[in-house]
Amino acid sequence: MDNIDLKIMKLIQKDASLSLDTLSKEVGLSRNACWRRVNILEKSGVIKGRVALLSSEKLGFGLTMIVLIKTNQHAKSWLETFDKVTKRMPEIVSVYRLGGDIDYMMKIIVKDANAYDETYQRLIKEIEIFDISASFVMETLKDTTELPI
């Protein structure tokens, strides 16, 4: 990767809808040369996909929860079940396995507290969890998908 690849990635992570013509002008390449570079970045997996970011608030999803989980189950079968269950639940938008005192952290986006409780009840019905604690987000100060290129 060179500086042109970095420029391409910086531009498309800000706005994936940029036309190839606009992108090529911004990085100083011909349209075909720019397309080849984007294609290589996509095929190599550096560009994982292109998406539209939606407003959770405008779609009626007014509650974001950060959920911390501790488990006393560290068998592969438990992790496989946890993985399968959380991937089946679209309101769970992020899951991280952590080092330290907390085993997992999840970000859950739902309409309201009742919807969160329904998610919580389904989760504990399907997965044995030692300890779970949840906090609701009062204000989002920063939330970006952009990597610091």
Automatic annotation (TrEMBL):
Molecular functions per Gene Ontology: sequence-specific DNA binding
GO CC annotation: cytosol
Gene3D superfamilies assigned: 3.30.70.920, Winged helix-like DNA-binding domain superfamily/Winged helix DNA-binding domain
CDD domains linked to this entry: HTH_ARSR
InterPro entries tied to this protein: ArsR-like_HTH, AsnC-type_HTH_dom, Dimeric_a/b-barrel, Tscrpt_reg_AsnC-like, Tscrpt_reg_AsnC/Lrp_C, WH-like_DNA-bd_sf, WH_DNA-bd_sf
SMART domains, per the entry: HTH_ASNC (SM00344)
GO BP terms: regulation of DNA-templated transcription; response to amino acid
Taxonomy, superkingdom: Bacteria
Keyword annotations from UniProtKB, A to Z: DNA-binding, Transcription, Transcription regulation
SUPFAM superfamilies listed in its UniProt record: Dimeric alpha+beta barrel (SSF54909), Winged helix' DNA-binding domain (SSF46785)
Limits of the HTH asnC-type domain: 1-62
Name of the protein in its database record: HTH asnC-type domain-containing protein
Organism whose genome encodes this protein: Candidatus Micropelagius thuwalensis
Taxonomic classification: Bacteria, Pseudomonadati, Pseudomonadota, Alphaproteobacteria, PS1 clade
